[in-house]
Write a structure and sequence with these properties.
The structure holds two protein chains of two kinds.
Chain A: H1 8-16, H2 22-35, E1 42-45, H3 49-61, E2 72-76, H4 103-110, E3 114-119, H5 153-161, E4 166-171, H6 177-183, E5 186-189, E6 209-214, H7 217-227, E7 256-260, H8 270-285, E8 289-293, H9 298-316, H10 335-346, H11 349-362, H12 368-391, E9 394-398, H13 414-419, H14 425-430, E10 434-442, E11 446-453, H15 459-473
Parallel strand pairs in A: 2-3, 2-4, 7-8, 7-9
Antiparallel strand pairs in A: 1-3, 4-6, 5-6, 5-10, 9-11, 10-11
Helix pairs in contact in A: 2-3, 5-6, 7-15, 9-11, 9-12
Chain B: H1 3-6, E1 9-20, H2 60-72, E2 80-83, E3 86-89, E4 99-102, E5 112-118, E6 121-134, E7 138-140, E8 149-151, E9 158-164, H3 171-187, E10 200-210, E11 220-225, H4 228-247, E12 255-260, E13 265-271, E14 281-282, E15 289-292, H5 293-299, H6 306-315, H7 320-327, H8 330-342, H9 347-355, H10 373-384, H11 390-402, H12 407-413, H13 422-435, H14 437-444, H15 449-461, H16 468-479
Parallel strand pairs in B: 11-12
Antiparallel strand pairs in B: 1-9, 1-10, 2-15, 3-4, 3-14, 5-6, 6-9, 7-8, 10-11, 12-13
Classes of the chains: A alpha/beta, B alpha+beta.
């Protein structure tokens, strides 16, 4: 039985050494997906996966040095891919097949990775539970009655289930980190602009980031190393680090870590808090300096986020108008109806809610009171984080205030769902990298995540520390 | 309309002009900017089609051309210009993304002005701003069909929108301003400026108010005019229509209107009574630009602009009216300018040939013309020296246009050189007088027309090569 959940570095070495083939790995991946399909992590299989695996095997045989040779991965279904549908888990894009792929999918393929399937998500990445998928929710691998987190819930669950060696997702306000935490995997949200956004259905352009979900920090670094780097089709990309992101665990000794006070306050599950403080004690024992730091603007971050993001969402979703692609209402008899009915039928309640909020906050007369003030909060937030990073190498907090909640328990309460993002959104507004690593369990066997944050472009520092913390934590399911 | 009623009102006119920039590719993608020969929807890619996951990347050349236009519009670039893009949100099938990328509050061109001569005075019209934006696609509505067609070839092609102050007061000023923009855009070389293809489109805002009133009247905006005549007529029509409304105690509706060229009328298109709600916000996909003054200045080096040309033409004694003929032809103006720079003393000669009312060389002056400023100056020098008659000069230029050659050599070969040897011509003139005693007698008796006959006979005797002024002089001397 081929185990695709081993470290990427080992699998790649075996493929290169001829001990394993890409086809073996992809077959194992497809078998596992079939075996665990009840979790509904996956929306569609890549029908060409095996064929592509054979092509990778030929490249390996020809002596090509592929950093991800033969590694099966799953892409969140807001990544445009040509061999499958690309739905963003929304009805309005249900019939959509993309004529092109973005640089990240191309880079992963060029590196020898094989996309085996498309993962479920909250429609248009709107949500933190994957219940807002127009194709039905994904179940948490650790408790199928609970949510996997979101919006990259399908990606996180797929990795936790061993359906693929890694997955790629998007993070606009925590959509990689939070499901990673809830599914017990590693979720990396890179610096804004480090990974090109081209070829991914936009949610909120100034916040959207692409990143990996993996079984280890080392794997996250390896995958990021392939994903990262500027692209001429995305004007917001930044240069990558000259060094590799595939780093080894660094030393915790002397590392200055700021523990964000505001993230330990009201709303944080007491069990998560207690376990987090225990982990902090272990970090200190390993030589790290950990001090509490107050970032008062973080208390306004969620409010600012839920103004700025819907504003961009309302504009980014305007292109789904039933005219050129996607769902076009058959009932429409004129232009006005094409717009109204296609969007009415194609968008779910959450997309509509965000379009309404976004339209409202951008309207003349309200722009200054909402959008502009939220931008000021964002500026303040950036200032406070910059200040903090003058003193601290890294910042630390929980990823999510609660472990995974039961499916359906909050679906009638959008505000309660928004509150689950309270510890992740600031990172997006500031544009810094952050990683969630599993550090224990709460409410029984439910995994919870520890979030480490670094200054912009300090992914190497972040991953070195996260790998060290990972080693220190050891088997998180026993903590 | 009775003049005394018309005279009670002041007309206030502002013009917005969309200029399509002459870049190679579109504003945010690498599709060809020129779709004149292309089938509908063949000049599109995922970006200008508005596919999911696509992002705009700003065309550097478009920014450079916009800055160049800014200099031509007399915008003084600050030490550091901060300019950014914004989204203008609205639904329309010709707008593939559901928003237009434009510039809201930090345009690439700020306040400037345009000056031009009109009826003996210089008119100055303020420029409020000019900004870069992507154009929309094109809609066609097939007659009798229950659908419309969308062509996105033009979508996201680069436009600069030039917004004037409401400084114009007459149809002639509106037309003059539009013509001057047309001149400036071509002199600056930023656009193909083909009016037929809509490379420049004008939206004309007109309102009327009682003279002396402080408040502006309600304005109408007549959109998408692409001829100067239509601009003038629109202003005339709207002025009359609005005054009639006001005189009857009705109110002018704020609305967008169109121009019907066949009927020579404006017509209502859509009401603008509700303020437009475009929900502008900063375009997150395009980082803001900070442009140092030196960078803008580097784009704004002009040998000359229309204003410079007018000064030069006036200096060599060309009337303002004649000058505008050349000013309106940038290619010829450049030839004249270069010729003038090489040899100012022939400037009038060269002007006459290029733009003069009699020898309309300009109509034949294609881009393949071999008539360089140097050759024009050489021909002018020959004419000035009396070696060429004006008729022969024109013929010589005609030959030179098609083939580069040495003008004096070609003139000799073709027998176009003029006889200016006074001794030779005197002999001929005396022979003609001897052959035509009656004409000589008539002239001496006071019949002026007989002089013409003698000149004609002398010219004929020289086979057309005689220098007419010299022949005139020789005849006059001898006829007493």
């Amino acid at each position: 039985m081929i185990n695709i959940t081993r470290p990427i570095a080992e699998l790649v070495a075996d493929v290169k050494a001829g001990k394993l083939t890409a086809a073996d790995l992809v077959q194992a991946s497809l078998a596992r997906i079939a075996e665990t399909e009840d979790y509904h992590a996956v929306l569609e299989l890549n029908p060409a996966a095996l064929e592509q695996a054979k092509a990778v095997d030929a490249r390996v045989k020809a002596g090509e040095d592929l950093p991800l040779a033969g590694i099966p991965f799953i892409a969140k279904d807001n990544y445009l891919t040509t061999g499958t549908h690309t739905t963003a888990a929304s009805n309005i894009l249900r019939p959509f097949r993309s004529p092109y792929e973005g640089p990240v999918i191309r880079r992963l393929k060029a590196a020898g990775a094989i996309m085996v399937a498309k993962a479920n998500l909250d429609a248009f990445a709107h949500g933190g539970s994957t219940e807002n998928s127009d194709f039905g929710p994904t179940k948490n691998p650790h408790d199928p009655t609970r949510i996997p987190g979101g919006s990259s819930g399908g990606s996180a669950a797929a990795v936790a289930l061993g359906q693929a060696t890694f997955a790629v997702g998007t993070d606009t306000g925590g959509s990689i980190r939070q499901p990673a935490a809830m599914c017990g995997v590693v979720g990396l949200k890179p610096t804004y602009g480090l990974v090109p956004r081209t070829g991914v259905v936009a949610m909120a352009s100034s916040n959207d980031v692409l990143g990996p979900l993996t079984r280890s920090v080392a794997d996250a670094g390896l995958v990021l190393d392939v994903m990262a780097g500027p692209d001429p089709t995305d004007a917001t990309t930044i240069p990558r680090d000259k060094g590799s992101y595939a780093v080894k665990a660094g030393s915790l000794k002397g590392l200055n870590i700021g523990l964000i006070k505001e993230y330990l306050g009201q709303g944080l599950d007491p069990e998560i808090k207690a376990k987090l403080l225990a982990t902090v004690a272990r970090l200190k024992a390993a030589g790290a300096e950990v001090h509490e730091i107050s970032l008062p603007a973080t208390e306004l971050a969620l409010a600012a986020y839920y103004i700025l993001v819907p504003a961009e969402v309302s504009s980014n979703l305007a292109r789904y108008d039933g005219v050129r692609f996607g769902h076009s209402s058959p009932k429409a008899t004129n232009l006005e109806e094409t717009y109204r009915l296609s969007r009415e039928e194609g968008f779910g309640p959450e997309a509509k809610r965000r379009i309404m909020i976004g339209t409202y906050v951008l309207s003349s007369g309200y722009y200054d009171a909402y959008y502009k003030r939220a931008q000021k909060v964002r500026t303040q937030l950036i200032g406070q984080f910059n200040e903090a990073f003058k003193k601290y190498d890294l910042l630390l907090g929980p990823t999510s205030p609660n472990p995974a909640f039961p499916l359906g328990s909050k679906s009638g309460d959008p505000l309660a769902l928004y509150l689950e993002d309270v510890m992740t959104v600031a990172v997006n507004l500031v544009g810094i990298p952050a990683v969630s690593i599993p550090f224990g369990t709460a409410s029984g066997n439910l995994p919870v995540g520890l979030q480490l944050m670094a200054p912009q472009r300090a992914e190497r520092r972040l991953l070195e520390a996260a790998a060290a913390a990972e080693d220190l934590i050891g088997d998180w399911s026993a903590r | 309309m009775k003049p005394e009623i018309r005279d009670k009102y002041e007309v206030v006119i502002g013009i917005e002009c969309h200029v399509q920039l002459a870049t190679k590719s579109k504003l945010f993608c690498s599709c060809d900017n020129d779709s004149r020969e292309a089938e509908p929807n063949t000049n599109v890619c995922e970006v200008c089609f508005g596919m999911p996951g696509t992002l705009p990347v700003l065309n550097k050349r478009a920014v450079e051309l916009a800055m160049r236009l800014g200099k031509a519009l007399n915008y003084e670039y600050p030490e550091k210009l901060h300019t950014k893009f914004d989204r203008k949100n609205y639904f329309y099938p010709d707008s593939p993304k559901g928003y237009q990328i434009t510039q809201f509050d930090e345009p690439i061109v700020g306040e400037g002005f345009v000056e031009f001569p009109l009826e003996g005075r210089t008119v100055r019209i303020g420029i409020t701003r000019a900004h870069l934006e992507g154009d929309a696609g094109k809609l066609t509505h097939p007659e009798g069909k229950d659908y419309s067609l969308v062509d996105l070839n033009r979508a996201e092609t680069p436009l600069v929108e030039i917004v004037s102050e409401p400084d114009m007061r007459t149809p002639a000023e509106a037309k003059g301003y539009a013509q001057e923009l047309y001149n400036l855009v071509r002199y600056a070389g930023v656009s193909q400026a083909n009016l037929y293809y809509g490379n420049m489109r004008f939206d004309v805002n007109v309102s009327v108010r009682l003279k002396g009133a402080k408040e502006l009247g309600t304005r109408t905006e007549t959109k998408n005019l692409n001829s100067f005549k239509a601009i003038e007529r629109t202003v005339e029509y709207e002025t009359r229509r609005q005054i009639v409304l006001v005189e009857h105690g009705d109110r002018v509706r704020q609305e967008t209107r169109g121009w019907n060229d066949a009927k020579q009328q404006t017509y209502p298109m859509r009401s603008k009574e509700d303020a437009d709600e475009y929900r502008y916000f900063p375009e997150p996909d395009l980082p803001p630009l900070v442009i140092p003054r030196a960078m803008a200045a580097a784009q704004g080096h002009f040998d000359f602009l229309p204003a410079d040309l007018r000064v030069l033409l006036a200096k060599v004694g060309i009337s303002p009216r004649d000058a505008e003929v050349l000013v309106g032809e940038p290619e010829l103006a450049r030839v004249w300018y270069e010729a003038h720079k090489l040899e100012p003393k022939h400037a009038r000669f060269v002007f006459t040939w290029l733009a003069g009312p009699e020898i309309k060389l300009r109509e034949d002056h294609g881009p393949e013309s071999q008539l360089t400023p140097r050759i024009l100056n050489q021909v002018a020098a020959m004419a000035a020296a009396g070696q060429l008659s004006s008729t022969n000069a024109k013929e010589l230029l005609g030959l030179l246009r098609a083939h580069a050659a040495d003008p004096s050599k070609l003139a000799s070969e073709r027998g176009l050189m003029q006889e200016s040897n006074e001794g030779e011509l005197a002999k001929i003139v005396e022979q003609v007088m001897a052959d035509h005693p009656q004409a000589v007698a008539d002239y001496r008796a006071g019949n002026q027309r007989a002089f013409g006959a003698l000149v004609g006979a002398s010219m004929k005797a020289t086979k057309g090569k005689g220098n007419p002024p010299l022949i005139n002089q020789l005849l006059k001397d001898r006829l007493g």
